[in-house]
Specification:
421 residues, alpha/beta, eight-stranded mixed β-sheet, 27% strand, globular
């Protein structure tokens, strides 16, 4: 694989763009691999890349039922942050943000990571006090965080609703190193880098069955034939329960819900930050893309679904949140909206762990926050598969934590089990 550079861009610009190589291969499936990762989203592709790069492993495949990045990887709102406090979460997300900061150089592919700050609006003294505790913990553990006064917030982002807001703004908590990245570019970058290490990326290869022999999985049945594997990793987000059932593993503490996202028509530069608020039952986040569209979203749909399309009640809810905090958006037209399928765990925290089957590994339960976790998720999942034991950072991200009463979630924001049908 040739390296991208300013010179290659200039050269191909002079030669009609005819000198570019294919970014990744489209191979036929082999009959057997040492490791198969199911799911060519960001987590699956990152896992395959780090298995090869960090651990020197070969004969790896990533199987995907549709096209690369066609699931949640291409259906999110692109926010990257590490403003977590709880042990385990703190180290995990800070490592992920550190990887993000060098990812374009690491992959030799511009993932368009923009550290434009993550601004969480504060609406009460109690919220400010609780947030101060979190952000002081971040600063004490080597991360960055700031508390902005109302005056500084007004000077920095003057067009928020400071005068007539239903929930008055009193300041903000800010992580300057946070920001956004281009989700498609991240998928393409990891795919290209994994392919350069010999990983087979098998698109349009849907898993239709899992073959077990005793305490191990011997093969997966796919729409492109049977594929044997020594180790298998699931990284399929909202479809985790489906594959779990194929492996005859019973119930899994995950519900699948839709999370919708929206983008407006392009505007002139308006917002150079990620702005978030959550108060009074509302939840909202917004940023502006490089194309000028306002990218925003809110709460998930509270009924279980595998759909990837939106619906009007959430459109109304999110539009009301947008205009309540930025009234200047009232006449802006929405260009499109879509949804990803969220794998909501019962405590709002993920799983990176071994399963009851010896050679089957699980990466799931990312709830609202899978995108920002992609690099660290791939890093630690690869380490687990390669070494057959969890790194200390993820040692509590296992299925048994519910039996043991281990709490690792920041605010208990799972899907409120059994309340959604």
């Amino acid at each position: 694989m040739s390296r991208y550079s300013a010179w290659s861009v200039f050269k191909n610009g002079l030669t009609g763009q005819k000198g570019w190589e294919r970014a990744w291969r489209d191979p036929e499936p082999k009959s057997e691999y040492d490791i198969v990762i199911v799911g060519a989203g960001l987590h699956g592709l990152a896992t395959a890349y780090y298995l090869s790069k960090n651990h020197g492993l070969k004969n790896i495949a990533v199987v995907e039922k549709g096209w690369l990045g066609g699931g949640n990887g291409g259906r999110n709102t692109t926010i990257v942050r590490s403003n977590y406090m709880m042990p385990g979460n703190r180290e995990f997300y800070e490592h992920s943000l550190t990887l993000w900061e060098e990812l374009s150089h690491e992959l030799n592919y511009n993932v368009m990571f923009s550290q434009r700050s993550h601004v969480s609006l504060l609406h009460s003294p109690a919220a400010r006090d609780a947030t101060a505790r979190r952000y002081n913990t971040m600063r004490l553990t080597g991360s960055d965080g700031e508390l902005w006064s109302l005056e500084k917030l007004k000077n920095t982002i003057p067009h928020l609703n400071y005068d007539n807001a239903r929930f008055p703004i009193i300041g903000a908590a800010v992580q300057p190193r946070a920001g956004t990245a281009r989700h498609d570019a991240v998928a393409w970058g990891y795919a290209r880098a994994a392919d350069s290490h010999g990983v087979d990326i098998l698109q349009n290869c849907e898993v239709t069955g899992v073959t077990r022999q005793g305490s191990q999985v011997s093969a997966i049945e796919t729409s492109r034939g049977t594929i044997k594997a020594k180790k298998i990793g699931f990284a399929v987000a909202g479809n985790t329960s489906r594959l779990w059932s194929m492996a005859d593993l019973g119930h899994l503490p995950i519900e699948s819900h839709k999370l919708q996202a929206f983008v407006s028509e392009p505007l002139k530069p308006l917002l150079d930050h990620v702005v978030v608020f959550g108060v009074g039952g509302a939840h909202f986040y917004i940023s502006q893309s490089d194309k000028g569209g306002m990218v925003f979203g809110g709460d998930l749909d509270w009924y279980k679904s595998y759909a990837q399309r939106g619906n009007l009640p959430i459109v109304q809810d999110v539009a009301e949140c947008a205009t309540s905090i930025m009234p200047c958006l009232g006449r802006v037209r929405m260009l499109r909206h879509w949804s990803g399928v969220m794998d909501m765990s019962m405590d709002g925290s993920p799983f990176i762990c071994k399963t009851p089957i010896d050679n089957l590994y699980l990466n799931a339960g990312w709830n609202y926050g899978g995108f920002k976790a992609s690099p660290a998720s791939g890093w630690y999942f690869a380490d687990l598969i390669a070494n057959d034991r969890p790194d200390p950072v993820i040692e509590n991200m296992h299925l048994q934590r519910f039996e043991q009463g281990i709490i690792i979630d920041e605010r208990g924001a799972g899907p409120d089990p059994k309340l959604h049908g």
